[in-house]
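Q: Convert this sequence to structure tokens.
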Amino acid sequence: MIVGLGNPGAKYENTRHNIGFMAMERICRKYSVKCDKLKFKSLCTDVMINGKRTLLLMPSTFMNLSGEAVTEAMQFYKIPSENVLVLYDDISLDIGKMRIRRKGSHGGHNGMKNIIYLSGKDDFPRIKLGVGQKPHPDYDLADWVLSRFTAQDLKELDTVLENAVKAAELIVAGNTEQAMNKFNS
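A:
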């Protein structure tokens, strides 16, 4: 299962918090599928990636409740946590950067916090996509992650979103180490 985190609705399109959805849209485009089936409190579809049937999931629960959708799908299909790849935003990485991890803590990210809490696991791979740091320390974090990318930001994101697709394909194929070596920046 590949999960892209974000918030549903036009109000949140092209916001920093929705970069996980943006990456999922790239995956869908590459495989000529639409993530449009409503199931597991998500928009989802399935696709063959490297010979493996893969569920693509975009939770519609809003970011802070992402775990509800993810754990529901995991339980239904009996997907072990190590076969759940999560793509999401990271404010500690510059725009255009990404970091792949085999497992880890939530790092303060509320969507990840909810997934870890509800699943009881933190051993799933993840692709963290850089959305840049707050412009200054006093800037409200919620306002920052819900702010829209600039036109220049979107241009810089093009390459990292394409690389996120390639990294996801490698991870689905069981080549997480290769993805980390090739794409961690």
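The mean pLDDT is 95.
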